[in-house]
């Protein structure tokens, strides 16, 4: 299946906690969504006890890279033909480069007002079934950095960012009225919570009347309108060789169809300046506002002392593309390294910026094509695009299947019995299962907000296959914890991992012993996150026996490893306790 560590989009994404940010015992994250690629050389591996910045570029270098990218995508020949004021409602598209909503607002107006709404339902709410925090502190901090960077880049283009705390359906109509905006431009979403907000914003705008156009004394009142634009995927929805309702239920069929019959559009060009902002009206709505802090959101985070630390924002995103493709030249080996788990460069790590919209998938595609012309075209360069197509696929599937991707039986309405055993779930969440590979991955998630694609597959399989736990608990915990969370990718991946996705063939079991021997043969990864294992012989780190905590459940299938490896001594439980009963 796909491995999207640089994208946020492959198969996979509670009950128990009031508002918290992170648990004292580290939890974990999902597999299928974030694209990673790079060679796991010793120089790219994390130093024990030190955090590793991603990207590793300094702020000045990242800013220079971004400025150069903006310059390549700026066209002085663009002409502005609109009148009045247009508002740009930023959502999960926190970028200036290749932001079609922003460019179209500029072209259709004389002044542009960018707005971001700090929606308390998203940043202070809870998940649907199990009441976990909807946004954990790590992603909240990443979002805060994205907003600060967006504000800075908008200012470079003659604009600014107005920030308001509240519901978009209440804020946007009042702003449109204050500045007499004729249109609010925004990127369209596909999942139910976001679609509901779109409907409520449109309804709120129907209650607003502004006067615009005509001769003095003959100006006609009109309602501001909401103009939604597709911009979240590499392939545009209008360029698919079928309607969304006829989307193939098998990824390979989808991929082959778009690769043969569709083409990726070029990134939209920018004018030299996007200004000005409106000349009046801002005073009556309280000025530009301020970007929130973790404290203002009621959150707090403990600074991690190890693992990767991602910097939010468009400059960091463009800097990471430059660093991974051009500076470190890791793109040429992506396919060989993408299943790694330790260090920043086994994969692209683009997914957090793709999920926040700080990075355009079309820009990544353009850079891949540019790299292929200037350096090399091989299986690795293609595989980055392969993963981006997976990301697209999950976005389109969420439009086709709607809320069924969040339901227990998934798109195929599979009837199964699942456990919601809280103690078992918490042992998984906190990295206390007794299986080093599971525990290390979950602790990385709680410390960094990230987990490798391989790790996401493994911890998902363990939760649903070996523990028999309701897959939605895992998906909602990932929703809380992942930096690269987006609903389509997260829940799409989890439905696949749980065997309830739209493609019945994607129903797989990951053997922990086999995965450990294949992807962490010397136990370097587990020893990094579980330092108590470092003193053991390398071949015993993933199979520590009584040198580690007792295993919480037996494995459903272990390929004979339990008997052959004395390390797998554990407290046995009845095999029937956690087995799913498929009717």
TrEMBL record:
Gene Ontology biological process terms from the UniProt entry: photoreactive repair
UniProt keyword annotation of Glycosyltransferase present = no
At the top level of its lineage, which domain of life is listed? Eukaryota
The residues annotated as site (Electron transfer via tryptophanyl radical) are 418, 471, 494
Enumerate the SUPFAM superfamilies for this protein: Cryptochrome/photolyase FAD-binding domain, Cryptochrome/photolyase, N-terminal domain
**What GO annotations for molecular function exist for this entry?**
deoxyribodipyrimidine photo-lyase activity; DNA binding; FAD binding
Q: Which PROSITE patterns match?
A: DNA_PHOTOLYASES_1_1, PHR_CRY_ALPHA_BETA
Q: Where is the Photolyase/cryptochrome alpha/beta domain?
A: 84-218
Looking at the keywords, is Flavoprotein present? yes
Q: Which cofactor does it need?
A: FAD; (6R)-5,10-methylene-5,6,7,8-tetrahydrofolate
Alphabetical UniProt keywords: Chromophore, FAD, Flavoprotein
Matches recorded under Pfam families: DNA_photolyase, FAD_binding_7
- Free-text comment on the cofactor: Binds 1 FAD per subunit. Binds 1 5,10-methenyltetrahydrofolate (MTHF) per subunit.
**Where does the chain bind FAD?**
334, 347-351, 387-394, 484-486
Q: Which family does it belong to?
A: Belongs to the DNA photolyase class-1 family.
NCBIfam families, A to Z? crypto_DASH
Function of the protein: May have a photoreceptor function.
Protein name per the record: Cryptochrome DASH
Task: Identify the species of origin.
Answer: Digitaria exilis
Recite the lineage of the species. Answer: Eukaryota, Viridiplantae, Streptophyta, Embryophyta, Tracheophyta
């Amino acid at each position: 299946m796909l491995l999207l560590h640089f994208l946020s989009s492959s198969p996979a994404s509670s009950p128990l906690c009031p508002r918290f940010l992170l648990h004292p015992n580290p939890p974990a994250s999902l597999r299928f969504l974030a694209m990673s690629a790079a060679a796991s050389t010793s120089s790219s591996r994390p130093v024990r006890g030190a955090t590793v910045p991603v990207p590793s570029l300094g702020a000045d270098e990242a800013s220079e890279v971004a400025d150069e990218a903006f310059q390549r995508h700026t066209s002085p020949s663009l002409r502005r033909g609109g009148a009045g004021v247009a508002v740009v409602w930023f959502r999960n598209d926190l970028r200036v480069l290749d932001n079609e909503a922003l460019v179209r607002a500029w072209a259709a107006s004389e002044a542009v007002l960018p707005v971001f709404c700090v929606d308390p339902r998203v940043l202070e709410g809870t998940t649907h079934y199990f009441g976990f925090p909807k946004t954990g502190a790590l992603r909240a901090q990443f979002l805060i950095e994205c907003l600060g960077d967006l504000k800075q880049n908008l200012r470079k283009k003659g604009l600014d960012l107005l920030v308001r705390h509240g519901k978009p359906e209440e804020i946007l109509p009042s702003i449109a009225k204050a500045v007499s905006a004729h249109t609010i431009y925004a990127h369209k979403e596909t999942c139910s919570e976001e679609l509901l907000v779109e409907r409520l914003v449109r309804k709120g705008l129907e209650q607003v009347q502004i006067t615009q156009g005509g001769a003095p004394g003959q100006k006609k009142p009109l309602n501001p309108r909401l103009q939604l634009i597709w911009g979240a995927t590499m392939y545009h929805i209008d360029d698919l060789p079928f309607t969304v309702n006829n989307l193939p239920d098998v990824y390979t069929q989808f991929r082959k169809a778009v690769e043969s019959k569709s083409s990726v559009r070029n990134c939209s060009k920018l004018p030299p300046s996007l200004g000005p902002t409106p000349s009046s009206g801002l005073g009556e709505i309280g000025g530009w506002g301020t970007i929130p802090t973790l404290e203002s959101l009621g959150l707090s985070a403990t600074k991690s002392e190890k693992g990767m630390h991602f910097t939010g924002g468009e400059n960091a995103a463009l800097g990471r593309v430059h660093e991974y493709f051009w500076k470190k030249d890791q793109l040429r080996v992506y396919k060989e390294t993408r299943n790694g788990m330790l260090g920043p460069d086994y994969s692209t790590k683009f997914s957090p910026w793709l999920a926040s919209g700080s990075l355009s998938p079309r820009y990544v595609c353009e850079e891949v094509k540019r790299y292929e012309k200037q350096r090399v075209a091989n299986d690795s360069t293609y595989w980055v695009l392969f993963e981006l197509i997976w990301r697209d696929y999950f976005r389109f599937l969420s439009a086709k299947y709607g809320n069924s991707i969040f339901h227990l039986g998934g798109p195929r309405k599979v009837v199964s019995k699942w456990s919601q055993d809280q103690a078992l779930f918490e042992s998984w969440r906190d990295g206390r299962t007794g299986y080093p590979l599971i525990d290390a991955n979950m602790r990385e998630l709680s410390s960094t907000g990230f987990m490798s694609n391989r790790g996401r597959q493994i911890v998902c399989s363990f939760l649903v296959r070996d523990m028999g736990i309701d897959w939605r608990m895992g998906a909602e915990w990932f929703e809380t914890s992942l930096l690269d969370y987006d609903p389509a990718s997260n829940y799409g991946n989890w439905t696949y991992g749980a065997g309830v996705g739209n493609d019945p063939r994607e129903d797989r079991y990951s053997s922990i012993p086999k995965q450990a021997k294949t992807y962490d043969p010397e136990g370097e990864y587990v020893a990094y996150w579980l330092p108590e294992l470092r003193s053991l012989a390398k071949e015993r780190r993933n199979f520590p026996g009584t040198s580690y905590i007792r295993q919480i459940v037996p494995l459903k299938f272990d390929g004979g490893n339990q008997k052959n490896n004395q390390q797998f001594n554990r407290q046995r439980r009845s095999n029937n306790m956690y087995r799913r009963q498929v009717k």
